[in-house]
């Protein structure tokens, strides 16, 4: 099935469910409200849950999809007074399965320059127990294809993983480590024919790659000009460091030298501290403007007295 979001002829936000084999008439359609914001659909194939979040408002609607009528069933709705400008989601492998968390949003609140996490939970009587019906096998973080296989047109399903703690699922696809022959075959796919129409030779391929690298380096030098003798603004490249130690927070991967707050009270303290700093800066700017106005008035008065 296909789901589309948009507006009706009466400028009402609408969701429509279609059959891919017959697009002449929709299977289901519903008008939601009269807001003008764009709807962001988020679908969870593991639980067949659909989340509709509106841009510019603070509502997130939750639905359950099924292959039989009525196809879409409304579950619940989240409302907030703070409008959201955009949303991001946490991958399923980052959820807290012990508390039956099935989805997590990160709401971008523009009015407060804040990213607010919002979790969706399924209430269960027994907490701390892994619920297999809520967490089936889901897409993992291992690639099912190499770059060479993808260029050759091979298609595979994603490698699945279990969200159950301490569970291990083997990769069903054989892991092939790239060697020099594979890299040579991969680079030979970049250029198929010479300008003259003849077969590709190693010397021609080398010249093409060399010219391409020279062009890229010249572009980088022209765009980011710098003097090697001046290293005052140099900073180490942290992306190349593989020896970081991460703190043991449930879902955060931050360096241990600057760990994030782990409790809600600490988050609130940090938020209020930032608000106080912003307020102090605004007061300083206001005093500066007042002082500038006073100095301008004194200059005008002195000029008038001199005349």
Would you write up a description of this structure?
With 307 residues, the chain is an alpha+beta fold. It is extended, with a radius of gyration of 29 Å. It starts with a strand and ends with a helix. The protein has helices at residues 147-151, 180-188, 202-223, 264-306; strands at 2-7, 13-18, 28-31, 39-44, 49-54, 59-65, 72-79, 86-89, 101-109, 114-121, 138-139, 160-161. It contains four helices and twelve strands, in the order E-E-E-E-E-E-E-E-E-E-E-H-E-H-H-H. Among the domains are: 2-121, Methylamine Dehydrogenase, Chain H; 137-173, no CATH class. The strands form four sheets. It has a four-stranded antiparallel beta sheet with strand order 4-5-6-7, with no helix packed on it. Strands 1-2-3 form a three-stranded antiparallel beta sheet, with no helix packed on it. 26% of the residues lie in helices and 22% in strands. Residues 268-298 form a coiled coil.
